[in-house]
Amino acid sequence: MTTTDDALTYVYAALPLTTALRDALKDLRGIHGSPVLSVTAPTGTGIGIGTGPAPGTGGMSPPLAFATSHVPRREFNESALKRHFEDLEWLEEVARAHHDVVQALCAHTTVLPLRLATVYQDDDRAGRALAEQYEAFADRLAQLAAHTEFGVKIYLTATGAHTDTGSVADASVTPGKAYLQRRRAQHSAQEAMYGQAREAADIVEAVASRYASQRVRHPAQRGALTGPAENVLNDAYLVPDAHAKPFRAAIEEAVGRFDGISVDVTGPWAPYSFAMPPAESRHSADDGEESGR
Q1: What's phi and psi for 145, nearest 5 deg?
Q2: Can you tell me the distance from the alpha carbon of 141 to that of 109, in angstroms, rounded to the nearest whole number?
Q3: What is 148-272's CATH topology?
Q4: Which of these, 5, 100, 146, 224, is most buried using a 10 Å CB contact count?
């Protein structure tokens, strides 16, 4: 059991503290099974109480809060995090718990996810950090209201990425010439496949622009993340909830006509790619402030 004295305050996201959210937090568990709590800006800061209409509701907006958990100081202080971020098993466990909490919160309200392992010395420090960034968080949450993130990836299939153009050898051609001919044919086939991938990417961008309000282009994934296929496009789109189904259908239909290319549309997700990062000024939790690397 982590006590207040040996704990840090871990922050998953910033979000409006609605009545539905308060109820949802009662049974929600986060990292290492710790309860998910809420931290609001301290009284006396002049903020934290809704003073304007909630986006799309016409009513008073609820106060903003951090969704938090108490985590062991020995495991989440700055020096420990440097070690743990090299431990893929630990990192996967924490990242999964972080993601699960954020996704659960998304079912109840608009969520602004914070980066993995954002921690503060205690709840008071977290509350003061929220107060300092309150207006920026509120503005960004208003832009994200009634939107979710979708991922669009384009892959060259295993056969498309590694085309085999072998043919029956001509007895009159020397082995050396036959090898060069095969290499040229393979190169031409691959160039044609990459040309189709570029065309498909242009079509995805054009189709998505009819539905999405924002786009982020991530680096293509490599290695074990893609399996036998080659990832050639890795985009994230911020899509209004009303356009979610037509967005997915239009993308899949537009790219489905290409041979040797597959499209993977994922979501809806919390808007990780469109979340605003915490304040630029970052300090160590060991020194009594935030650490969120």
Answers
A1: -55, 135
A2: 10
A3: Alpha-Beta Plaits (3.30.70)
A4: 100
Q: In this predicted model, what pLDDT tens digit does every residue of 38-92 receive, in sequence order?
A: 999 997 555 644 434 444 444 567 899 999 999 999 999 999 999 999 999 999 9
Q: Is 66 exposed, middle or buried (0-12, 13-18, 19+ CB in 10 A)?
A: buried
**Whether the Cβ atoms of residue 118 and residue 78 lie closer than 8 Å to each other:** no
Phi, psi for residue 260 in degrees, rounded to 5: 80, 5
What residues does CATH 3.30.70 cover in the chain?
Answer: 148-272
CA dihedral 203, 208, 210, 216 (to 10 degrees): -120
